[in-house]
Amino acid sequence: xxxxxVLVLGCGPNIGSSTVGTFRKxxxxxxxxxxxxxxxASDDSTMALKCDLAQPKSVEYLFKTVREEWxxxxxxxxxxxAYYPTKPEESFNIPTENFxxxxxxxxxxxFVAMREAANSFARLDGSKTLIFTGTMANEGGxxxxxxxxxxxxxxxxxxxxxxxxxxxQDARFHCVDERxxxxxxxxxxxxxxAHADVFLDxxxxxxxxPWQVTFVSGKGYVEFPHELIL
Length: 230
Ligand SMILES: NC(=O)c1ccc[n+]([C@@H]2O[C@H](COP(=O)([O-])OP(=O)(O)OC[C@H]3O[C@@H](n4cnc5c(N)ncnc54)[C@H](OP(=O)(O)O)[C@@H]3O)[C@@H](O)[C@H]2O)c1
What we know:
GO terms for molecular function: oxidoreductase activity. This is NAD(P)-binding protein. Belongs to the short-chain dehydrogenases/reductases (SDR) family. The protein has one domain: 3-Layer(aba) Sandwich (Rossmann fold). It has five helices and nine strands. It has helices at about 15-25, 55-70, 95-120, 145-165, 190-205; strands spanning about 5-10, 30-35, 40-45, 45-50, 75-80, 130-135, 170-180, 210-215, 220. The structure holds NADP nicotinamide-adenine-dinucleotide phosphate. NADP nicotinamide-adenine-dinucleotide phosphate (NAP) binds near residues 35, 36, 80, 135 and 192. NADP nicotinamide-adenine-dinucleotide phosphate binds near residues 79 and 82.
């Protein structure tokens, strides 16, 4: 059987690096992409490609490169994000160009990644998975984090829709959102390896979960009430 490829967009030292290591150990070829990736292949199962999610065309180019090198990816992780924190009462005091740039990273490039992933998945047999690293923004958001919450809420909407549209083709779309044991957002201590373990379980169909995967490190999937808990 051909070796499967996972593509991690927005791959840094925590969630990204853990995801790369976890999928490598499970036999996947891994492509990591971020602004600081150098374009070098470190071995025949690992590539690190430069990509700026503020430029949606960069995501199209990334998929083109991966297809030319290794064929269609069967797992895509969209992990990059941008934020412009303000005081809650200054939520709208954000220059238009900053709002647009962050929307490109949090939403537009996520849209392009979902569209390109759906195109890749249509050409592959077997299970296919796209994971969007979520936050609880789609439950109501956190005051003072407008650009992140707008983008993540839009991303969650697209994931919910894609999960309905593509599920019968064994293509699953999930928004994975780590919470504290009380169901609150992770303001600190985000679990890189805990995310990677959930991502692999979803990709390998070891669990069958809804589009919105809220999880607690050490416990796994936990369904919380759909209301803002801060
Ligand atoms: N569940 C929660 O409550 C919660 C809390 C906090 C964060 N999160 C989510 O967790 C994710 C990040 O986790 P992490 O920090 O552990 O991940 P990470 O893999 O350690 O880092 C993410 C990487 O994304 C890359 N990135 C940022 N902007 C980019 C851009 N414009 N183009 C390309 N790459 C870009 C950065 O690398 P370069 O600088 O090299 O580009 C960064 O190192 C985000 O999706 C965030 O929303 C969730």
